[in-house]
Amino acid sequence: MSDLKQFPEVSFLKFIKHSVSILRNPLPFHKANFLALGNSFRLNIGLGKSVVFSRDADLLSYALQKNQRNFSKSPIQTKDLAKYIGKGLLTSEGEMWQKQRKLIQPAFHKKQLLLLLDTIHLTIQKELDNIVLDKPSDIFPIFNDLAFQTVVKSLFSTEIKEEDSKKLQHTTEITQQMLVKELRQPYLVWWFKLSGKIKFHIDLVDQSRAILKRLVNQRKQNAERQHDLLDMLLDARYEDGSEMAEAQLLDEILILFAAGHETTSNALTFTCELLARNPEAQVKILEEVEKVKSESSDIMHWIKNATYTKLVIEEAMRLFPPAYFIDRLNKETDEFNGFDLPKGTNLLFSVYEIHRHPDFWENPEEFIPERFLDESVKFSKNYFPFGAGQRMCIGNNFAMYEMILAIMTVVQRYQIIEKKAPILIKPLITLKPFEAILELKARA
């Protein structure tokens, strides 16, 4: 008989009792269970199924790094998410993932990203022209469009029509909303299938693929190189010299849209929400921006030397991590710190809770960018803004460059009027802001 411990359990009855609040925002439910039961607990979700929720940074490090070979992504990504955005780098596993990672990685190398900096900077400037000044308004739509257009322009340069761009963005967003309903209401999946809701959203994805296929074919027929991400993906070759199949290329582009704009738009919005509540940080960023721009007109010089701006973004991603959960499933029976992990255990790690765990973070609820001056904090097992290990986000440098340039531009152009009300959140597949109402004024 095994002497291994079992995780404390939360009953299916309690899950159903709180189902309405969980659908709206599951974080308070999880928080209450962590406080009552410890850093990990098993939630029974019905039909003999359960999920282990954890805010144990050591267990997450074990799954992502120390024993990563025994852990794979769960069906949430490899099956549920994949049906909406395809089977590519984000949603694949094993040999296929290794093959795609090796192929695509060079496109996101820092040297390659240098070719995109002008495009990223110009897109940010253009999109920020849409900010409403001198009256309170929701800033999330601005940053959502900014992040999406940055991905679009980085992929397709100037080839995409506004109508196509809007269709792609709309599909990306409403399929996410559908997936959230499926995951938080597993007892209604039969109805989602029977009513045609799932098919409706998959049909929208097929329409997006048709748009992307047309754009790819246009590029192939055009001999003029654009030096964008699409050129890099079309140039990429496997070890045997073959190129990516068209269907695979379309899946990878869909994934870049989904993963490349959601997290960034969320992080930018939360950063501005925090700056509104910490006006002294705006002053420091403004001074830094004026200094680095007086030194050079080189965009990479700005990015490298915007030290405080980067600290602010890192602290924003600690408090409001866009990828606020990481899922894993162990391939074989395992154990950790005396706890039993039967084969096929579904693990959901709360990055949100790990980033605020009082056992590691001093004053965890406070906005203190300077805490990241300590490199050991930034690279600790308690900070996972882009994941960790082999599956760390391939676009982390792209995202940081974009966010640094965006915040520099916002603060140099505008004063974010001080606000005291609590920051509201809307957890979906990513951690999204809710009613991010801010007032901005043009700087003299």
Enumerate the strands of the largest sheet in spatial order, edge to edge or round the barrel. Answer: 1-2-3-9-6-4
Main pleated-sheet profile: 6 strands, mixed
Please identify, by name, the CATH architecture. Orthogonal Bundle
CATH topology: Cytochrome p450
Low-confidence spans: pLDDT under 50, at least 5 residues?
A: none
Number of domains: 1
Q: Total helix count?
A: 20
Radius of gyration: 22 Å
Average per-residue pLDDT, rounded, comes to 91
| Structural class estimated from helices and strands | alpha+beta
Count of strand segments? 14
- CATH H level: which superfamily? Cytochrome P450
Shape: globular
CATH class, anyone? Mainly Alpha
How much of the sequence is in beta strands?
A: 5-15%
How would you describe the overall organization of this protein?
The mean pLDDT is 91. The protein contains 20 helices and 14 strands. It is globular. It is α+β, with helices and mostly antiparallel strands. It has a single domain (9-442), classed as Cytochrome p450. It has helices at 12-17, 19-24, 27-37, 57-66, 75-85, 94-104, 110-113, 117-128, 140-156, 162-184, 189-194, 197-221, 229-235, 246-277, 279-295, 299-305, 307-319, 351-354, 375-378, 396-413, and strands spanning 9-10, 40-46, 49-54, 71-72, 137-138, 325-330, 334-336, 339-341, 346-350, 414-416, 425-427, 431-433, 437-438, 440-442.
